[in-house]
Input
Amino acid sequence: MNVRRFTALSFGLAFLYLPIVALVVYSFNASPRVTVWQGFSTRWYEALLHNEELITAAFLSLRIAAINATIAVVLGTLAAYTLVRYPRFRGRTLFTGMVAAPLVMPEVITGLSLLLLFVATQSLIGWPESRGVATITIAHITFSLAFVAVVVQARLVSFDESLEEAAQDLGAPPWRVFFLVTLPIIAPALVSGWLLAFTLSLDDLVIASFVSGPGASTLPMVVFSMVRRGLSPEINALATLFIGAVTLGIVGAVLLGRRSPRS
Amino acid sequence: MTEPVVHFDRVTKRFGDVVAVDDVDLEIEEGEFFALLGGSGCGKTTLLRLLAGFERPTSGRVLIGGEDVTDVPAHRRPVNMMFQSYALFPHMSVEKNVAFGLKQDGLPKAEIATRVEEALRLVELTGLGGRRPDQLSGGQRQRVALARALIKRPRVLLLDEPLAALDKRLREQTQFELMRIQDEVGITFIVVTHDQEEAMSLATRIGVMRAGRIVQTGTPREIYETPQNRFVADFIGSVNLLDGRVVAVDGTRVTLAVDRLGINVIVDEASAEVDTVCALALRPEKIVVSIDEPTAPNRVEGIVKEIGYLGASCIVRVRTGSGDVLQAVQPNRQRDLSLAFEWDQRVWLSWSEASGVLVFE
Output
């Protein structure tokens, strides 16, 4: 390989991954001081297991992420289906733009506007009584939906509609056409959209901080407050686990997105 | 009088302002191999989709076996379609694809298995049932699509450009295959195609479409030898159109004055009235090229401008005194490399009285 290209590439990769590698390495440090290496140990992983606050937050985050992903897939698929299958209706351009807007909207603004909305509805109709799991989930759905819609849209665009006609022609009523032909063929996009939405929700700190209330702290929120109290190797261990989970999610989403049986 | 298996009863289909099918009245008899032939956008595919039930007519009725199916949805019509893209389900094996139609009818598993095997044998794909569509060649996929559409033994099989995706050699082979299969199963086939050669060799009857209307129906021979108008004459094969005016009629013997060529042409087996403006449609292979002046009454002199060698025959383009170019096809009966005539040589073109046909607008 060209020497110059190799140097550039390794510099770029180092820039991206050195901090993460350092974090992973230090999660196995025996010393309680983050910056001093004292030999290999898994004590911080054990300590993590006994940290009630973190465990609770982790399960809360996973639950929110799963509910968010599921609802976002349903809504995002409906949006994508409408955009792809009904190409000519009034306001389509506007709708397309609006579906994609959360992709580029700064999180602070999304979070703030949702908070204002929840405060307003609370005083108007008395809902939500208090902010917490429900409001975080709703907030996550609003932006995950956009990502799912984009992923599913890409799949539907390449979908040959004569497949559905063929199934109908062979005697399948519309609902069976959907379950026997449409759904299995777009399934990889749905799974990949689900994983993406799951990961996004698991990652989110900013929006959750805005719309959360007392007693509902997601994992990123707990970690953030722990860090402010002082660095602990426990957080390194937690972050390592997190990186592992997110990497798996993303790799899975990409692989499924790529696997596309062609007719 | 038997009921036609398919009857389009004054069917019109509009998409917005576009009239895709314009007042089509067409009957197709049981057992026919009918070809709808026309250029792109002539409405032939729309007509097929109206029959399959994917489109609803704006007005008119569609009848299958005498029964009005205009409002019957696609999944309840006794017709099956083979799609241009084949539309094989990519997530199912060949076997599952072929079995799909029978499964929708809830047939017992054992019967489905036998009939799938039978269908695969018919299209010569025995042993490939476990494959997925993306593991098959284009020709094999085409046959899976055919088996899948045939397995329900529909009243009518619809084929949308069945050979368009195949290469030339495979196309010719598959043409005969299709004819054999139709013969074997005895089902009425309706094929949509833009390829006139394909329509001629496959079909027992052809309907030529233009701008949403059927302009002529007939056997391939009728369509080719007695086109009813300029469009059909021009669309099917190549043709020389000599515009003229009828100057004498003697029974079925019509004399046409072709002013541009400065000759009178005699046409047998025609009917026209004196002074009618019409054209003589003359197929290139009906014209004889000779160096000496022939005795035939229909003849014109010209200069050879181009000779195209096609192997089995030569296309000769001859410019007449008026500047009009006529095209003649001469079979290569000898292996002799030198032709009887050359470029820029003066030659005579002649044809018999019965070899052309008069076409009106």
Observations:
- The helical segments of chain B are 44-52, 94-104, 109-122, 138-150, 168-185, 196-202, 220-225, 230-235.
- The interface with chain A takes residues 52-54, 73-76, 79-81, 83-91, 100-101, 104-105, 132-134, 148-149, 152 of chain B (CB under 8 Å).
- The mean pLDDT of chain B is 92.
- The longest strand of chain B covers residues 298-309.
